[in-house]
Amino acid sequence: MPDDPLPAIDPELLFSHLSHAKGILAAVSGGPDSMAMMHLLARWGLEHRVSILVATVDHGLRPEAAEEAAFVAREAAALSLPHRTLAWTGEKPKTGLQEAAREARYRLLIRYAREVGASHLVTAHTQDDQAETILMRLAKGSGLKGLTGMRRERNREGITHARPLLGWPKAALLDLCQTSGWRFVTDPSNTDERFARVRWRRLMPRLAEEGLTASRLARLAERVAQADEALEMKAREALEGAAPEAGEGGLSFQAACLAEEPFEIGLRILAQALGRIGLENIRLQRLESCVERLRTAILASESLRLTIAGALLALDRSGRLSLRPEPPRSRGR
């Protein structure tokens, strides 16, 4: 995305892709990003006959959270938007808290979206959030797919998760709230350096001084996403051309394509094949190691048996690869 000044935020353009939604659930925490989204959605909703509901997740991690949810409820009511507080109850993990909270948050939101018949969930992720995500994934050694960042739309268990503010910087939304007189709250966890995202956020101004701005990182994510889409398409074509056969919960295909295609395509062919038997989100390192071993065996016309992420892979001497889920392990052995 270029560093040119941004135009005024037009709700009609911002939410145009939501005009055919059967119902919209807006996740609003009370911060300036989500409060700006709620006000803009309410304004847009006046011109469109789409049901808009608001939900706030109380993670039960801070005593102020309940009052913040009540604040959002009052502000939503002033806009004639129904509101529900969703509570994350039960014991909280001592490690990986942010990731666990994120999983709980989406679980609660998707469940509620289904309950109220909403087809879309919208969240207020911004350009800055996208930049932080790219940096965090880069630091963890992510592959191309990880560097696509957050998508503007994705499917979550049948609900469309949309991020309409992904092209907008936090500063623009904060300024909009302040100039419009829209109230918001400040979450102290956003400055808690125990969390990796906060530490990366602190580094962003220094990186921007060297030219690595949030807008340029977001543009990088868009370009990587375009490349990722092309590679996925090429891998699908290669897999379809390898005589795939499904049966009894498994899949087999002629594996020569894993060795004949460039390594990156081979990775994606295997990932797609595993996805067809219900195994997804496999660690890149494990996938790379598996493809390397398969390519070596294919070129040597050797058979090979190995496991990866709950799947049994069997390559026969004719070069056909069979994949099936591992059977459940017997207890007590």
For the record, the CATH architecture of the largest domain stands as 3-Layer(aba) Sandwich
H/E topology pattern: HEHEHEHEHEEHHHEEHHHEEE
Low-confidence stretches: none
Relative helix content: 40-55%
Could you say which overall geometry the principal axes of the C-alpha atoms support? elongated
CATH class of the largest domain: Alpha Beta
Q: Characterize the largest beta sheet: strand count, sense, and whether it forms a barrel.
A: 6 strands, mixed
Overall SS class? alpha/beta
How many beta-strand runs? 11
**How many DSSP H or I helices?**
11
Nearest-angstrom radius of gyration?
Answer: 23 Å
Average residue-wise pLDDT? 93
The percentage of residues in β strands lies in 15-25%
Largest sheet strand order: 3-2-1-4-6-5
List the helices and strands and how they pair.
Layout lengths: L10 H4 L9 E4 L4 H14 L6 E7 L6 H14 L4 E5 L9 H20 L3 E3 L4 H13 L13 E4 L2 E4 L7 H11 L15 H14 L4 H27 L4 E3 L2 E5 L1 H5 L2 H14 L7 H16 L4 E5 L2 E5 L4 E6 L8
Parallel strand pairs: 1-2, 1-4, 2-3, 4-6
Antiparallel strand pairs: 5-6, 7-8, 8-11, 9-10, 10-11
Helix pairs in contact: 2-6, 5-7, 5-8, 8-10, 10-11
Characterization of this structure:
This protein has 333 residues and is of the alpha/beta class. The chain folds into two domains: 11-222, HUPs (Rossmann fold, 3-Layer(aba) Sandwich); 241-325, Uridine Diphospho-n-acetylenolpyruvylglucosamine Reductase, domain 3 (2-Layer Sandwich). The chain is 46% helix and 15% strand. The protein has helices at 11-14, 32-45, 65-78, 97-116, 127-139, 170-180, 196-209, 214-240, 256-260, 263-276, 284-299, and strands spanning 24-27, 52-58, 83-87, 120-122, 153-156, 159-162, 245-247, 250-254, 304-308, 311-315, 320-325. It has a six-stranded mixed beta sheet, sandwiched between helices. A hairpin with a 2-residue loop joins strand 9 and strand 10. Helix 2 crosses helix 6 (170-180), helix 5 packs across helix 8 (214-240) and helix 8 crosses helix 10. The longest helix is centred in the last third of the chain and has 27 residues, at 214-240. The protein is elongated and about 70 Å long. The N and C termini lie far apart (56 Å). The model has no long low-confidence stretch (mean pLDDT 93).
